[in-house]
Amino acid sequence: PDSAVSKRLKELHTPAAAPAITGSFTPPEVLYHMCTKAAWEAVVAKDEALFPPTFEADGNFTHATGVPSRLIETANHFYQAVEGAWVCLRLSRSGLRRRGILVRDEQALPVGNQPVGADWGSWICPHILGGIPVDAVDTVLPIVRDGPAFVRIEGIDDVA
Q: Which InterPro entries does the protein's record reference (predicted)?
């Protein structure tokens, strides 16, 4: 029998059914993913794909966004406790597909055991069904921090 803890973990880590996407939603071509600079440099040195630390716990996908204005809010919500330099990777949906990696657009989902923001219910987020190959990234943008806070991403115009 499952313990209360294992039942709760299953609840947290079982991806919810994606809501029906209605209206004029167009899946974004340009995608962004944030990670520590050290994690990125490590996979570049080995020419491996980047898998976030929560990849398996999150349901075997990599979180991304196609809405750059959400990056700083997302970083401050999930990652302030992670010290060190961070970067933002820019890549394309079509580039991933050419490498055999699909992207699923669905509601915002937790990162590890941390829930999404209370007002993110209407967000449709691209979830990459695999890691991010080094050669799929076209731009690496530095993220500026002030202590634990993320304040801006150099090179992205619509992010303050």
A: DUF952
